[in-house]
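request received
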Amino acid sequence: MTAAQEGQLVLLIGKDRKSFIVRLQHGVRLQTHRGILEHSDLIGRPMGSRVRSHLGHQYYLLAPSWDDLLRAIRRASQIVYPKDIGYILMKMSIRPGSVVLDAGTGSGALAAAFASAVMPTGWVISYEIREDMLALARRNLAHLGLAEYVTLKHRDIGDGFEETEVDALCLDVPAPWYYLEQAQRALRGGGFFGSILPTANQVIELLRALERSPFAFLEVEEVILRGYKVVSARFRPMDRMVAHTGYLIFARALAAEGSDEEE
Amino acid sequence: MTAAQEGQLVLLIGKDRKSFIVRLQHGVRLQTHRGILEHSDLIGRPMGSRVRSHLGHQYYLLAPSWDDLLRAIRRASQIVYPKDIGYILMKMSIRPGSVVLDAGTGSGALAAAFASAVMPTGWVISYEIREDMLALARRNLAHLGLAEYVTLKHRDIGDGFEETEVDALCLDVPAPWYYLEQAQRALRGGGFFGSILPTANQVIELLRALERSPFAFLEVEEVILRGYKVVSARFRPMDRMVAHTGYLIFARALAAEGSDEEE
Amino acid sequence: MTAAQEGQLVLLIGKDRKSFIVRLQHGVRLQTHRGILEHSDLIGRPMGSRVRSHLGHQYYLLAPSWDDLLRAIRRASQIVYPKDIGYILMKMSIRPGSVVLDAGTGSGALAAAFASAVMPTGWVISYEIREDMLALARRNLAHLGLAEYVTLKHRDIGDGFEETEVDALCLDVPAPWYYLEQAQRALRGGGFFGSILPTANQVIELLRALERSPFAFLEVEEVILRGYKVVSARFRPMDRMVAHTGYLIFARALAAEGSDEEE
Amino acid sequence: MTAAQEGQLVLLIGKDRKSFIVRLQHGVRLQTHRGILEHSDLIGRPMGSRVRSHLGHQYYLLAPSWDDLLRAIRRASQIVYPKDIGYILMKMSIRPGSVVLDAGTGSGALAAAFASAVMPTGWVISYEIREDMLALARRNLAHLGLAEYVTLKHRDIGDGFEETEVDALCLDVPAPWYYLEQAQRALRGGGFFGSILPTANQVIELLRALERSPFAFLEVEEVILRGYKVVSARFRPMDRMVAHTGYLIFARALAAEGSDEEE
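response:
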C-alpha cells in the first residue's frame, strides 16, 4: 500500500470532476467549493482512496498524470497539449539523460515536460525574452518539483544560444525561421530540431527557410485526438473535439562539413 | 563535435530513404544494396555527417529516433506506433524511475519504449505466454541496448502478476477484460491502467468489465496522425494516411477499501 | 438582376451573423433584435444586396443555402448535418425523379433534403409513428415549400411499407435491424439502402442483421467536416469542431431469386 | 420487379469486386477477365439479380451509384470525390432547376454531377481551355447520358463568362484568384461561389483575393471520409484512408450596389 506523504504532489478529484493539485504539507488546508480538506488528514492515507471534505463530499486522492499537471499549470500563453508533447518526446528522442534546449519558455509547460522526461541525469535549458513569463515559468516549475532540472535564461535567442552539442532543440516561438542558424550552432551533429506553429502561413515560411538550411529529413505532422464516450452500451465518439492545436515540424541538423562536396 | 563511437546504435540513411540501424563494431561491415560500409570507417566520424559506401553512394550517419527504432524492430505481431506510445507515456505518467508492468510482450516494442522512458532508475516487467515471442523480444531489447531494464516473464497472466505496487500496467492482449482483478492487485493505489485494442467490439467488452470493477476515471481515445508534404510552395496533407491503429483505454486503480461505504 | 419576389424564401443575415429565414409576403414584418424589416420593403430588392432595419442596422438579403435551411428547421430530434445528407444523396443516387422512402420522419429534415433533390418529378414517402413529430415535420416542409413532394404516413414500419419498387430507402430509427425484411420488400432489385446511427453498438447490431439478409455491398463510413479560419494571413483549422454526428451504413438490395442456386 | 432495359446504364460487379459500367445494347458483348456477358442476355433480367458469364462466373446486375460512376469515368486529371461533390451540392444549393457554371471542365466529372442534380429543368455550362479535355469530357457525359444538360465551351475564362445571373459557379482551376471579377459578373446577386484547391498556399492566395472582392460569407472546409471494416464481430476503421483531396472554399456574391454607402 502506497500512502500519501508530506511534500508529495497529489490530485484531489471530486464526484463533480472538479480537481485540485496540491503539494501536501502539514498545517495547510485545501479550500474547495464543497468543503475543506486538511493536508494533515490526507498525509498517510492510501493513494487511490476516497477522502471526504468537512462537509462530507467525497474526493479521490491520486497521483496526478501529465494530463492533469498540464491542465493545472498556470499559464499566460497557449497551452501545449499532452497529445503533442508525447509525440514530440518520441520524434525528438527526448529521454533520460538528454540535454534539451527550448525557446520561448512561456509558462514553462514544455520545459516541464522535457525536464520530467530527461531527469535525473539530463538537463533542460529554456530561453525567454519576457521577464514576466520567466517568473511565471519559475513558479510553475517549482510547483511541479522540476526546477532543479531546468535552467531558465532571460536572453534574446537572436543573439544565439550559449550551449552547443545539445541533443534536441524545440522552438515554440511565432517566427522560428529567423533562428535556424542559431539552432544549428547549438545542436550536435544529427541533433533533433522541432517546432510548433498554429498557422499554415507560418509552416510555409519555416519550410522555406529549412529548405535553404543545413537541416534535413523535414517532416510536418498534426496529432489529432479523438475522445469517446465511455458508456459500454453506447460507445461512440464525443460530440465535439479540439480540432487544432498546432502543426509539428521536425528536422535533423546535419554536421557542418568543410570540404565535403555535394553528391 | 560528437563522433560516432564503437558500441553506439546508429542510423544510416541513403538518398533513396532506405535506412539501416546497426551497432558499431570494429571489423563488421554493413552490406547495402548500394555498396558496403565498413564500421571502422564510421567510428570516429561526426554524427550528422555524410559517409559513402565503397560504390560512392552517400549515407547520412545519425542517431536513430524512436520512430526509426520502432520501424526497425523485428516483429511477429502488430506494430505499436510512436503516436500511440508517446501519448500512453503522457497519460500513464511513465517517466524516469517508474515501475511498469506490460503484457503481452509480443516483439517487445512497448516494453522497449517503456524501458527507454523509465531508465536508469526505473524498471519494466513484461509478461508473455509464447516462448517464441519472448525469444524475439529478448533479441530486440538486446539490439536496442535496453535488456538490463526489462525483466521478461514466461507466465500466464491469468495466474496473476508476481509484482505489487507498480506505478503503471498496460495490457496489450486481445481480451484484457479477463485480467482486471490481476491488474488491480498488481497496481499501487491510484496506479495507471492502460490498454490498446483494435476493434470497437473489444472496447465495448472492456468498458463493460471496467464499469463493474474498482477502476475509475475511464477514458477512451484515438490518436490520429496526419502527415503533410514538406514542400513550402505546395503545403498540403499527404494523399493517404494510416486511418487506425487502435483505441487507447485508460483508467485509474482505486485503493481496495474494506469498510468504506459508497457515497 | 434577380429581385426578391413575394412568396420567395429568403435569408436575412446581419453583421453579427444572426440570421432569419422568412417567406416574403406583403404586409408581414420581421422583428429582429436590431430593428424591424417590412417584407414589402424587401420585395423587389436585388438578391445579394444590403437592406436596413428601421434602426439602421444592415442585413444581407440572400437565398438560403441548404446549410442555412437545415440550421433553421424547427426540430424536436437530432439534427442531420449537410455533410451527411450530401454524402447520402451521392451514395444512394438520389436525384431528380427518384422515389425515396424514409423513416422515421422526425422533424422532416431528411425528407426535405430528399424532396429537394428528387423534385419536381420524383417523390418522397416518409413514415413516422409519433403524431407530434408528423405535425412538426408538416409545418417544416410547408415552410420550405416542399410539402407537395412528400407524403407523410402515420404508421408503424414494423407493419411494412405500403410501397414497392422504390429506388432508395433510408432508416433513421434507433433499431433499424428490426426492419430489414420490410425494407427489402419495399426496394426495387438493386435498390439503395441507407441508415444513420450514432453508436458503434448499433452499427454492430445492424451489421449482424445485414450479414444474414439479402442485402449486399455493405459499407460503413463517417463524414468528418473540418472548418478553417478564413483569414488569409493566418490560415488554420478552427480550434474546435463537431467530432461525431453518426455512422452512415449503406447496402444494396438484391433481387429475391426463387430457384437461383448459390455459386 | 424492375427489369434491365436496352439503353440503360448498368453496373456489373463480380465476386472479386471488379466492376464494369455499360449501356445495354442488343448485339453488344462485355468481355471480362472472367468470361463474356452478352447484353441481350442481360436485357430483361431483374435488376439486383445474379447473372453469369459464359465461363460460369457470377456478376451482380445493378444500377450504378454516383460513387460507381465517378470511379468509372475516364479521366486525364484529378478525380473529384463523391464526399466533396455531395457537400458542394448542399453548400451551393445546386438542385433541380439550378443554372450552374463550372470551369475547367477537365474530364467532366464535376459537370456531370451538377447535371445529374439540376436535370431535367436546370442547365450546366462548363468552360475548358484545352481541346483534348473537352473531347474527353464530351465522351464521358455522353457515356453517362447527361450530354443534353451540359453546354461545353472552349474558351478562356480570363475573357469572362458569357452567362449572367447564374445560380452557382464553381472554379476548379489552379489559380481561381485571377477570375473573381468574371465570376462576380456571371453570378446573380447572392449567387453561390465555390472552389476546390489542393494546397494551403492556393487557399491563402484565394482568401487574399476574396477579402478584397465583393464576395462575402467566406468559408473553407475539408470533408474527410473514414471508412470502416464491415464485419460485425470486429467493427473498426479501415487501416488506411484517403487523407486529403482538397480544400473547399465557399462564398456568396454580393449585388453590385452603386450608391449604397458602407455601414
